[in-house]
Amino acid sequence: MIYKRIRDLREDRDLTQKAIARALNCSQQVYSNYELGLRDIPTDILIKLSGFYGVSVDYILGISDDPTIKK
Known about the structure:
Layout: H1 2-12, H2 17-24, H3 28-36, H4 43-53, H5 57-61
Helix pairs in contact: 2-3
């Protein structure tokens, strides 16, 4: 679920893998492997994705269906 969710977040915003990779300071191939589930997503990258998209880490992980960040 996590891999589909990060792909959906990216596609919903009409962003390329290359653009996200640039924001995460990694290569497009590494980011592609995250989306394909070929590479585990490190915690620091999950946190960066959460901040980039403005959604909770729980949402990205599939723990919650509510993307709202709780404070």
